[in-house]
Amino acid sequence: MKKIKVVELFAGVGGFRIGLNNASNKYDVVWSNQWEPATKSQEASDVYIKQFGEKNHSNKDIAKVTTKEIPEHNLLVGGFPCQDYSVAKSLSKSKGISGKKGVLWWEIHRILKDSKSRPEFVLLENVDRLLTSPASQRGRDFAIILASLSDLGYAVEWRIINAAEYGMPQRRRRVFIMGYHKNTPIYEKIKKIDSKNWVFDEGTFSEAFNIDKSKNRNTNNFNLKGDLISVSNNFNKKGESSPFQNAGVMIERDIFTSKVFPNYVGKQTTIKDILLREKDVPENFFIDKNSLERWEYLKGAKKEKRFNKKRNFSYVYAEGSMIFPDKLNYPSRTIITGEGGSSPSRFKHVVKTESGRLRRLTPLELERLNMFPDNHTDGCTDIKRAFFMGNALVVGVVEKIGKALVSKLDN
To answer: What residues contact 385, with CB distance under 8 A and at least 6 apart?
Structure first.
């Protein structure tokens, strides 16, 4: 099989590229773009260049990149910005696809639409909330993405994948979206095969991530009707639960979606497996006695009266406790962008060493939780390195998808 020419958008520090390179030498990244808005420093792009070279890399606002600047390619990949869907915000406050970051979806759409030759495949990643946003029309944002891809000639399958459920070291749930253009044999196969069989047996995601077929599942079939404006204005207008389950396939706007469950047998990588030896951890990562009380407060359960000065009202704030310190014999919780820095936090990981001391995770350990090479982001501050990993994906997930796609193209 010929080389698969890849374009990587919203590249960050190169998670997609590493995963595809690990999957097969048939993937060849011919162009990449990374741009962080509203900041002069472009450290993620600097890391990308340091690791992969400056050739064919763009550090320019994607909205200002013309399609003529992007070379012909077979596969477009990208973890398009997800801040507007972030679980760090309440669902009612997330702006969804109309938010400042969400509009970057239309840059992907523009590139697909105007490319010299429309790429055969598209592989995208986002937070799982994409399937249920916005709160007023649950599932509308994903419906718009599916409808617009269908109008461009793509069949699409999707799957929410929790990396830890397939043996990887981090509980990170993300939706992966794979598109196949109508000029590909895979498109024709999806058109002929029963959609249920594609989701459970024949699809790229089912080949990469086995499904437990013995468990009950909710299924749904429907068609996305109308132009994109109609979909945007009318999809699930009553605000009921999203019709999209955690897996599905769409062809010619006909959708089959089902709830699926993982079926994994093998080694489970845990926090303990990725830790440095205590003697190799810099002293500034250990929690001092003076701040321990603050850590315990933030991690603990609370039910307390608070007062909002701005709005001049009192309320009772309540939240449950966090496991403190984190259990070493389990995969980690999801890494967040605020993982770095020594200040106490409810959400940062804290582990207990063999000597009984408590400490935060180092940037190298955070890289390992995302299955990046050790010290991939070395040279930046610890806070920035943690930020990169909070924005990154689990490389092993992309690697398994990459292998499954190559297998389909070889058969």
So the answer is: 340, 363, 366, 367, 377, 378
